[in-house]
Structures are given as structure tokens and as C-alpha cells.
Amino acid sequence: MICVGHNFREHILEMKRELPPYPVIFAKFANTIIGPEEDIPFFPISEQLDYEGEFAFVIGKRARNISQTDALDYVAGYTIVNDITYRDIQRRTLQWLQGKTVEGSAPMGPWLVTSDELTNPSGLELVVTVNGEERQRSNTANLSSFPFNI
Questions:
Q1: What's the Cα-to-Cα distance from 68 to each of 21, 39, 42, 62, rounded to whole Å?
Q2: Residue 99's pLDDT is what?
Q3: CA 150/CA 143 separation, integer angstroms
Q4: Closest by CA position to 54, among listed 121, 127, 118
């Protein structure tokens, strides 16, 4: 997975940070993906396990140098991902890879909504709950760091 960090405008501003001039890109590998109802493994290599709900674009065809106007034509659909991060490991270096690619750190799904079913991905609520307690609420209208605006 190609991921974009610092991507929700309101969260960046509440942390009193500046909006990044370019997208902050990191990866999650195949070993990170688990199903939406699977237990998230915890490996005792960190004391700062964290999570964030993310809105995922599933790219459906090969693309390169696509114009902003045509970008959504390359999206096959959308799903949700829980971005589990070992924060202390992530912050060891400037590269986030170590803390973002621990096995089982990307619960995904359970559905893929195809782009013909959802023609405008802007304005969707994103809510994360843990044991029924709301922990995060945002909206796709707040996405800020994409190489294109949705």
C-alpha cells in the first residue's frame, strides 16, 4: 500500500503543525494487511501502539503522470483501513517504515465500494470506535495532503 501521512487538515492544525507542501508518503507491505474482524497482534517491541482510521483509494489500473482532472478515473473503489503504528519505533528515524510495517498493522475492509457506486468521495464521515467509545471523527473533506484534491 502507498500511504499518505499528515493527511487530515484539522488534525494537523490541532497539533499546531503546518500543512506539508508535499504529500508525506510511506508504505505498508502485504504482511500488514489483516481482515476487519481479526485481532490486531501486539508485539512487545513498543510501548506506544497507536491507531488511526484511514480512507483508502484502491487503484484499478496502471497510471503515471495523470492529471488532477483525470485522477479519479483510475480509482476502482474505496475501503477503510486502520493504520496501526508503533509510534516510538516510527520516530527512531526520519523514515516511518519501521513503525508502520509491523505484521498485522493494517486491518482493512470489510467492504470495497466501487467507484461507480461512489462517484464523489468527498464529504464522507470517518469514525473510529474502540469497544463502543468514539476515538476519532473526521470527514474526507478534510483530506489535505493528496497529490490531487477530492
A1: 17, 38, 39, 15
A2: 94
A3: 8
A4: 127
Which residue in this structure is represented by grid cell 483530506? 143
Place of cell 504482511: 31
Structurally, what CATH architecture does the domain formed by 2-142 represent?
Answer: Alpha-Beta Complex (3.90)
Q: Give the number of other CB atoms < 10 A from CB of residue 31.
A: 12
Name the amino acid, one letter, at 93.
T
The Cα 150–Cα 146 span in angstroms is: 8
Say if strands 125-130 and 106-107 run parallel, antiparallel, or are unpaired. Answer: unpaired
Query: Based on the number of CB atoms within 10 Å of its own CB, is 35 exposed (0-12), middle (13-18) or buried (19 or more)?
Result: exposed
Residue with cell 528515524: 93
In this prediction, residue 144 carries a pLDDT of 65
Domain limits, the chain: 2-142
Residues of the chain with pLDDT under 50: 145-150
